[in-house]
Specification:
The chain is of the alpha+beta class. The protein contains 22 helices and 33 strands.
């Protein structure tokens, strides 16, 4: 069995209808129709955002949060902010009515918006565009890759992505909404949209920009009065908390945030033999591509004799087999067009560079088709062989299906098929670590992918798997580094015969058929695979167990893929035979019944306080004489209180007592050392033994709600879990007699049942 290893890498540029969904669907007005697992989630732990968890599909007719634009910080945006949620249209209208220019209170024109780790070394003057140039415009004669000029900030990784973006108007205006300008309804306010972890987020800014000696300090256009690029950079800085947060990164990250695509990274010393074919396919699908040279540790952005800049991010703007005619032969040569985001004379000076003699072998009609120019604009051509020799890293951003327009498809562009799932690693529950830690590895989230159709002209399926951890760049100021993450892929030869989720025995005797190249502390780990048609299970994980974080798992394939969580359906199962057959003499049973009759009085009913007295007496050993909390006792009453009297009769108490004894037997079965606590890793098995079938989403919530900081479950909290589970499932099943796995509630019923339980 292979052992995983990992490494740290800080090298950065410049310094389906079949997909299971968790969602609200509306029935008749005033009714909520809920799948059982969502009912479970909402009923036991009121986290409405959890409804958005689960399968998201980029194809077919399933609509998901990725198709909706959220305001920054809005509930459902996936970004938690203490600041106010800002609506661009409302704020602009208010400014127009009052005749004032917008000043953003959430991203102030002050030093803290520039840096989080230090103070500026000089005075920074924040100016509006009309204070920088005459006749300011958002665009001067449209927009192009030549509008992007680097300033003092080490974010050429971002610039390379912006330059690429300008070549795709549909993508560009997805980021830069067209409802704003300096000419019409100008109020000093602008907004931009970025993809963040499966959702589009709208970011509002004012137009005060940092300057020194009257010049823009950071990203700017070659035209002094053009400001779209500077404003876009400010919005991106606000999204991440400061301009400094943008220092150092990979073009992959920015390209994903501009498109919602999936990126691949290739090191040139270990490229696949079909790399040019991969580049051609990427260009056919409108993929955004960037590349860079290994930086010189002694010189910042050192220039090579060939005119290339080390540690600098370039964008690839064309990939083509070009017709060539030499005196001896006619054929095709693989060429690439690249661009230095500085947009100046710093260009490649080798073969196929501007004015190089090789171009005389290219027919005129081919030159016209290429739009060949030889300006000092930072753009140049080079051969594929030279590209592999001189560059050290390649990054490709494959666009999701929503990013292609009808015009793209009509023009012969192709699209990927995509599946997306959100998940999290929770200490002691689903944070199992890598395969090195076999005892806990199987607790990680698992995802089953079915590949039915091979690629055109091939017997295998191309699959890109991308695992992204969320919100780490914005947490830099709090010292949060990226977790070390990776994934493994297992072939399921007989999937219907295997348990859900796959258990420890499966991983003990089955090796992975593919995996991420390494475990690495980057925002995203991705890799391209060629797999035979079949059913596979993907297991994303951190390297070490018990490291907590949220993630996004995305699958791109050339043909349709079906993806679902490889997990149990929520519901009732069989009680463990070891529990049913476990002899448990209860010498206190008669005393407990006598105690009940004594406390119940003439009406033979007990309220929660009287129930607490009984249970504290009967379970004093299990609770270490500390007794049950009032919340548990209230929930126990609610579980069986059909008439909502707030009391239990003797027959109801007998039913409760039988359940509690069964749950106690389960707890003792797994509390092998008699410590009075269970590991959260044991919670699923313990609740399964009690007759409940749960998935990872429910388990994560239970541990968030009832577990300790160290992921342990005490006896009384385990009883509370069981009580709430039984209550919510019983309420649901009462409304779902035909076992359709959905139930309908009026708003009044929804509030009543969730509040009282």
């Amino acid at each position: 069995m292979p052992t995983y290893s990992y490494f740290y890498s800080r090298t950065v540029a410049g310094d389906d209808g079949n997909v299971k969904t968790h969602k609200f669907s509306k029935g008749s007005p005033g009714l909520l129709e809920l799948p059982l697992d969502v009912w479970e989630t909402l009923g036991r732990y009121k986290l409405l955002s959890r409804v958005l968890r689960g399968g998201l599909s980029g194809s077919g007719d399933v609509h998901h949060p990725g198709n909706i634009v959220f305001k920054l910080g809005e509930k459902g945006s996936g970004i938690r902010l203490s600041a106010a949620v800002q609506d661009f249209n409302q704020l602009r209208q208010r400014c127009l009515e009052t005749g004032t220019l917008f000043e953003d209170p959430e991203f102030l024109a002050q030093d803290s918006s520039l840096y989080y780790s230090r103070r500026p070394d000089r005075y920074i003057d924040w100016r509006r565009p009309m204070e920088i140039a005459d006749d300011p415009r958002l665009f001067v004669e449209g927009f192009s890759r030549f509008d992007v000029q680097q300033g003092e900030l080490g974010d050429c990784w971002l610039l390379a992505a912006v330059a690429n973006l300008t070549m795709h108007p549909h993508l560009f205006f997805q980021i830069v909404p067209e409802d704003q300008s300096f000419e019409e309804n100008y109020a000093g306010i602008f907004h931009f949209r970025f993809w963040q972890y499966g959702r589009w987020v709208d970011v509002v800014i004012d137009d005060r920009l940092p300057t020194y000696n009257g010049e823009l300090m950071y990203l700017h256009s070659a035209e002094r009065n053009e400001f779209w690029s500077a404003l876009l950079e400010k919005a991106y800085a606000k999204l991440h908390g400061s301009y400094e947060a943008l220092k150092g990164g990979t073009t992959c990250e920015a390209m994903e945030d501009f498109t919602g695509g999936v990126t691949e990274m290739y090191e040139m010393d270990e490229t696949p033999p079909n790399l040019f074919g991969i580049l051609l396919k990427a260009y056919e699908r409108n993929s955004l591509m960037g590349c860079s040279l290994e930086p010189d540790p002694n010189i910042l952005e050192a220039e090579t004799p060939q005119g290339l800049i080390r540690g600098h991010a370039y964008s690839i703007t064309r990939v083509k087999y070009v017709d060539i005619q030499t005196p001896n032969q006619i054929g095709k040569i693989p060429l690439l067009r690249l661009r230095n985001p500085w947009g100046n004379e710093a260009e490649w000076n080798g073969p196929w560079s501007d004015q190089s003699p090789e171009w005389r072998f290219i027919p005129d009609h081919e030159k016209d088709e290429l739009g060949l120019t030889f300006d000092m604009d930072g753009e140049f051509w080079m051969s594929f062989q030279d590209f592999k020799h001189y560059f050290t890293r390649l990054e490709i951003c494959n666009l999701n299906p929503d990013s292609l327009t009808e015009d793209d498809l009509n023009a012969g562009k192709k699209k990927w098929e995509m599946s997306v799932f959100e998940g999290e690693w929770v200490r002691g529950v689903t944070a199992g670590g890598c395969r090195n830690f076999l005892e806990t590895f199987w607790h990680n989230p698992q995802y089953r992918v079915t590949l039915e159709y091979p690629d055109e002209g091939d017997d295998k399926c191309t699959v890109i798997v991308a695992l992204m951890q969320k919100n780490r760049r914005a947490q830099r100021r709090m010292g949060a580094d990226c977790l070390t993450i990776g994934f493994a892929i297992y072939h399921l030869e007989y999937p219907d015969r295997l348990p859900k989720p796959l258990d420890i025995n499966f991983f003990k005797y089955n090796a992975s058929v593919a995996r991420s190249p390494s475990f690495i502390n980057l925002r995203e780990v991705s890799c391209r695979f060629k797999l035979p048609p079949g059913v596979y299970c993907i297991v994303p994980s951190t390297f070490d167990p018990n490291e907590e974080g949220e993630f996004l798992l995305r699958i791109f394939s050339e043909n349709k893929n079906n993806m679902e969580e490889n997990d149990e359906e929520v519901g009732i199962g069989e009680i463990d035979d070891r529990v049913k057959e476990r002899p448990e003499p209860d010498r206190n049973e008669e005393k407990v019944r006598d105690f009940f009759r004594k406390l119940a009085g003439d009406d033979m009913e007990v309220d929660w306080m009287e129930l607490k007295e009984i249970l504290d007496y009967a379970m004093r050993k299990e609770t270490h004489n500390e007794g049950f909390s009032k919340d548990i006792c209230r929930s126990m009453v609610a579980m069986l209180d059909v008439d909502h009297s707030g009391k239990l009769g003797f027959e109801e108490f007998k039913t409760l007592w039988a359940d509690i004894r069964s749950w106690r037997a389960v707890f003792q079965l797994y509390d092998r050392d008699g410590s009075g606590v269970l590991s959260a890793f044991e919670l699923r098995q313990a609740l399964n033994s009690a007759g409940y079938r749960l998935n990872n989403h429910i388990l994560n919530i239970l541990v968030h709600r009832y577990g300790t900081k160290d992921g342990m479950i005490a006896f009384d909290d385990f009883i509370m879990c069981a009580v709430r589970l039984k209550t919510m499932i019983d309420i649901f099943r009462e409304r779902d007699p035909d076992s359709t796995n959905s139930a309908t509630f009026t708003m009044e019923e929804w509030v009543e049942k969730t509040l009282y339980s």
